[in-house]
Amino acid sequence: MKSKSLLKWSAIIGAVVIIGISLGTIGYIYTKVTEFEQVFAQNVYIEDLSVGGLTKEEAKLKLENMKESELKQQSIVLYKNEIKKQIACNELGITYNIDETINKAFELGHQESFFEKYRISKEGLANAQKFELTKTFSDEPIHNFIKENATFFYKEPVNASIERKNRQFFVTKEVEGEALDEEATFEKMAEALKEPDNELNELIEVEAVTKTVIPEYTEASFADVQTLISSFSTSYNNASANRNENLKVAAQKISRMLLPDEIFYLSNQLEPFTEAAGYKNAGVIVNGKIEDGLGGGVCQVASTLYNAVLLTDIEIVSRQNHSLPVAYVPLGRDATYATGVIDFKFKNNTGYPLFIEGYCENNKVYVNIYGHKDAIPEYDIKFDSVVTEVIPAPATKYEDDSTLEKGKEVVEIKALDGKRVKLYKLYYKNGVLEKKELVDTSYYKPRAAVIKRGTKEVVTNHTPATPTTPQATTPPTTVPEETETNPTGNEASIPIDDIPPSVNPDDLNNFEVIQQ
User: G5 domain: which residues (predicted)?
Assistant: First the structure.
């Protein structure tokens, strides 16, 4: 009986022990499975990072740090020939699908049965599994980088040009330019960033895509602009070799091509008035007195150019007459120039390139304007200078001169009447006047005569003199001076550099400065 009771208790105790062990084992397994459910299975990789045993948060932090470090160390280089521009990849707004990849990788081993999870938690996955991150980036930083550096890849095109030497035209061929093709370059950079093989490269090199920039004016642009549109000349004499040299220098300086809608500034062509620029000292009349000044005579070139332009339909932007009539063009058809105060300007409104040619030959200043045949005026153009008012010269001014004997007078400056002039442009077709157009008005200031009177005492000899017949007072001697308008003369009147910059051009006639 006792034996049976002992066996019974032994069975009970054994069962309890087995149950205890089983419950302990199950508890252990449950704990391990529970822990496993919080981490990645072993043998799982995201790129080269083993995430086995890591929580999602731990894996994410490691991956973010890894990619941030990689992007800082990696740059993309945009190059073309010797030009290279570089930017770090972490400045390009690159991101990775870390969360998405983590969630996908985490599923491995976690979709199995309870006991299979336990097995995997101990042994890991039978075969290693690797996941790659997908790179994405914002377009804007790449576009901005390309735009900011586009100028470095830009090669300026060079227009063809035309010049005239020895009465012949010579055309210099254009040079094509180059510009960054921004859209094509963006596509190429984007492809390079997506390329898996570039992940391990510290430098990702991308050759910039460029496109040809055709110059606005090519050699062909000047094939049809060599027709003579107008020509004008003025005469000069050989009284001053320096003045004649200034005419040649100025005529050469105005010779140039003028593109459509471009404005010709006489100042840009003539300045600076220096010896280095080729100018000589020549007669300049300041307040009626002849003085030497660099560039004396250049206004004859300005007036010749003005008249050549008048013979066309070219738009005149700005023109000012001299303070006194000039000798080489009719009244109202002169143009003056003063540094910083007056400029002669006209605009090429023909729609085609023009070529201005200036030169001196056989004591004449010539200006020819060449362009397209369509720029030739359809009318024969003539002019009519109408004097609308004559302003009498002011009263004569007398100045004492101690170098002249008493009773003697010398006319230093001759009186000139002032004039108001209207210039009309007359348009003829087949000999018939079809229209009359006011071009401009000019005002030439009146000028008082200046006579010097002698104050020097006459030294008399104390020796008795033989009585003589009383002598008449010596009449005033006239100093040769510029004449009024005469197409064959060679003098010009012009306000020049010593006019204060603040002077209003409308008040220029308050100054009397004549450049011969």
Answer: 376-457
